[in-house]
Hints:
The chain is an alpha/beta fold and 371 residues long.
Amino acid sequence: MTTNRGLYIHIPFCIRKCAYCDFFSVALDTELASRYIEEVCNELSLLMAAYPDTVIDTVYLGGGTPSVLPQSLLERLIAHIYKCAHVEIKEFSIEVNPCSSDKLSFYPSLGINRVSIGVQALQAGILKAIGRLHTPQEALDALSRAARLFPDVSADIMLGLPMQTVRDVEETLKHILPYVTHVSQYMLKLSESVPMGIAVKEKRMILPDDDLTADMYDAGSSIMQQYAFERYEISNFARNKRDCMHNLKYWNRQEYIGLGAAAHSFIKGVRYENPSDMNAYLNGEHLGNGLAGKTDISVKDALFEYIMLKLRLEEGFEVAEINHLFHIDFNEKYKEEIGALIELLDFNNGRIRIKKEKMLLESYVAKKFLK
Length: 371
């Protein structure tokens, strides 16, 4: 019996780290990148031997900035995936930054059929403030080229950035929507340790308040609706049902394997995390060698995860399914919680979801079910 699993590969190399980013990344060095890809290939071989029932049906190259990876190394990596894994790939995504989008025309030959382009904003002053290296025009040029090459193009934008207004968000979306089938609209969340976080703490940078950021989200959602984009997850919108199949695995608690430093995996109900350390990873400290951090998920935690993740989705979850999976009577177990949330939840045909206009309260709603 086989199990479909997604494959996430963390490519941690960047030309320069953005001021808001707290993902694990390092400066691009070709020799280091070559050693890293060699170890990623080694880890994949080990994991395919450990889980021979795996069928890879989605691949996602994230980072970092995967698009800075030299062409030869990307070829080596993808060739190894096809060599050592059972693949039936329906979706193969790569994250691309506008200033490293010169290899877009090469990707389809490797089987990549989806690109996610980090736009963030189309106002030069905002891009400079957050440490992005590209110009607004470079972002639009990358989107235009991608639209001619790929059946699926996604763009990331951010909300709540310094100097950003509702009108900025509306203008950004109006410019990018003709080129894309998918948009991820994220609200800025800052770690206090990153340069922007430090600047905000020291009052050298001022960010829009929560109410204004929520107005940006609502305005962006309205613009996308006008362009026939439908929300399927709090931060994700797609046209013609072109949802990101790989990311849906995360929200549906389906299994996935993560390769590379700082990569996470979810296999047979257990979560794993590789170290966020380049030297440790290159020395074999990773899941392939059984040396990743491990978190066994209790039934209680799995139940909360299910509720929390499913409530992020526009469709919510089926009561019959959660009852079957966890051997509970959901309506009885959470009778008090449901009563307290009656103004925020929608009940329809045996499904529970957060009301469309209340989706930004998902975190508040989900925590009510933590018991």
